[in-house]
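for the writeup, i need someone to sanity check this before i put it in the appendix. the sequnce is what the collaborator sent (i think, or maybe the updated version? ugh). structure was predicted straight from it, no edits. if anything looks off just tell me and ill rerun, i have time this weekend
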Amino acid sequence: MIRAVRLIFAFTCLLAAGLYSAVAATTQQWHFDVFLDGDRIGHHSFTLANTDSGKTLTSEARFTVRLFSIPVYRYSHDAVELWNGPCLERIEAATDDNGEELQLQGRASGANFIVSGTSGQATLSGCVMSFAYWDTRILQADRLLNAQNGDYIDVSVTELGTDQLQLAGAVIDTRRYRLQGEDLLIDLWYSDDDEWLALQSTTPSGDTLYYARQNIDAP
C-alpha cells in the first residue's frame, strides 16, 4: 500500500519556503483535509498571493498513514511557485518522503524552463504548468510538471458532467473532470465559479485518496 500512496502523493502534492517574498495585494487560500480510504491522514494548504510581479503560491502538506494506530508512513512537502500568467516562472520545493529527502528547483530561461533536483536536470520548452489544480487552465494542458520529482508528464482531461458534493456542512453543485496520465488517474471537482473543491484518486493497489475543501463559503 505504501508504494501506491507514495506514487499518488507525488502527483497530488504540487508544491519549500524562501523562493520569493513580497507584499501581497490580495490573497486566496485553499485548505484541504486529506483522507486515505476514509481515514483522515493529514492536511494540504495553499496560499496564492497576487503581486506586481505575478502570482506566488505557497503550499504545505503533512501526512501520516497509520496501521493499528502505529505510524507506518510519513510525508511532508513544502513549496513556493512564482507564476506569470499561465506559465510557471520559478519553483522551489522540498519533500520528506518517509525519510527520503527530495529537492527540486526550476526557473524560466528564455523560451525554456530549467528543472534541477535530486534526480538530475532537464530543459523543458514552452509555457510550463505544474499540477496547479487551483487554476482551471490546467484542464486544457497536455503536459504538466510534477513538482516533487521534476517529471514532465503527458496528460489528458475528460469532462464528466455535473455532480453534487457535501463539503463543510453544505451541499454544493459542481463540475467534475478526470485527469489521466501514465500511472495517474485523478478526479477533480470545481464550483460553477471555478473554485477547486475536491480531488480523488485511486491508487494502483485500490486505495482511495481524497482531498476535501474546508474553507468554503456557504451558498
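The mean pLDDT is 86. The chain has one domain: 2-213.
thx in advance!!
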